[in-house]
Structure formats: structure tokens, C-alpha cells
Design goal:
The protein is α/β, with parallel strands linked by helices and 299 residues long. Helix content is 31%, strand content 20%. It contains eight helices and eight strands, in the order H-H-E-E-E-H-E-H-H-E-H-E-E-H-E-H.
Length: 299
Amino acid sequence: MNTSETKVARKSDEQAEFDSLLPATQVNRRGFIVTALGAGFALSVQPSAAQSPIKTGTEGLTAGEVKVPVADGEMVAYRAMPAGKTGLPVVLVVSEIFGVHEYIADVCRRLAKEGYLAIAPELFARYGDPRKYASVADLYSAVVSKAPDSGVAKDLDACVAWAAKNGGDTARLGITGFCWGGRQTWLYAAHNPALKAGVAWYGRVDGEVNDRTPKYPLDLAGEFKAPVLGLYGSADQGILIEDVELMKDALAKAGSKSQIHVYDGAPHAFHADYRPTYRKEPAEDGWKRLLAWLRSNGV
């Protein structure tokens, strides 16, 4: 089986269903559809009555929306940082497919409480508001499928430039992301030579390539400019453990400093405290590993 055939074979049933809905990649030249973040959770992943999402307060923080200059206008983002401080290490926070809703904003506040300037850009802002779609399939088709990897990297670069002018020390730059954002975390580690460290939460490592997603982390194992810690669950139904093992092997063969840790029995999105997939023990352990990884790598 050749490489192309292997990639197609590894796709999950969910991904195959999404792929059947994908329109051709296009660039929205009418400006930004999302210009403000609002509050609450995305419609397609509302917490149930049984869920008690973590709520991190803003005491001692400067937190809220900011506008980041990019080539075609201003991109809205959520930023949290210790109040009155400058020269702060910077962490880019990359969302799931649901965009920058309350969970992602809270992750930024958690990082700010640890002394970081954390910024989460709404990377889907040109294509639609991911928080307003009740169906995951419709969200993927109408919004997520239109965001090319190359554009995401440029937007993250713009956030780095913004942070450098607004209290951040970008010589101490890190990135973390969840699901869709986990994959982008791996990709950004191959893109930006100034990055010091990344932590990718259950980001897809392989898949079918196209103009929008020309490469996957598995293709880039020897090209990471900063070490990445990958956090995965063995019971993830969307990211096969076989693919995770292939990624481990590829990193070892490349002599990479990146590492992967797998939580036995954990499902996809085990860190997402507002979803039924949340698993307290691996989520808390993963957070400790994230902080230790950033600090041990100069962030």
C-alpha cells in the first residue's frame, strides 16, 4: 500500500463523513464574519446539567477580547495575563473546531494565573461563527473546512507579533491546542523557528491530504523546530492508537526531542471539562505535564 492509500485507510468513519461534506477551499474576501466573541459555550457542545465546567476568575488578571492586526483586517482573540505585568512568557492557545468559546477562554485564564500571557485567536473568524452551529457536521462543512493550514500559521504569527507589543516576551514562546488545535500545535512547531515548546492535546497526526491540509504531523516528524508534548487517550475513537504509535516511532527515528504520553482508557477530549468526555485524573495530570513541559523548555 502506498503512502496516499495508507492515509485514506487511516481516516475514521467520522472524518470520512465530514470529508463528504467538504466544499472546495475558498478565501472569504469580504472581511471578518466574527468580530466579537461574546460569552458562553458553543451551541453544538453545550454543557449538560450533569457537567460542572471549571470556572477561573479574573481576579488579578487583565482578561478579555482584543483585536489582532492581520493582513486583511483585525482578528478577534481572547487574551488573559497577570494585571500590570510586562515581559511575560507567551502561550498561544488554539481551539477545538468549536472556536473561542468559554472553555478556551478559561484555559487562557488558567495559564494567566500561572504567569503567562495567553492568547486564543478566533481562527475561523473569516468563514463563520463556530459557536452558533448546533450540528457538528454542519459546523465542519460550513466553517472549519474552509480554514487552510497556511492561513492558520500566518494568523498565529500575527498573534505573536501582537503579544510582543502588548506585554509579552516572545523569546519565551509556547503553544498549546486541543483536537483541531492539537494538530495545529504540531504544525506550528514545524513552522516557527522562534517557538520554544508546544503541547498538543489529542491532535490528529495523520489523514487525507488536500490543498487545505497538505501535511500532517506524521509527515513532519523530522522538521519540528521546538519539542512538542503530545497527550492522547488510548480509547480515542477518532484518533487510532495505531496512528499515535506510528507518530512515536517517527519521532524516535528522527531523533526528535518531542514526546507522546498516552492515558490508558481515556477518550477523545478528556481535558474538555464541559463535555461528557472529561476525565478528571488524566486532565489534571496532563495540565501538570503541560506546565512542566513549558517551563523545562524555556517558556
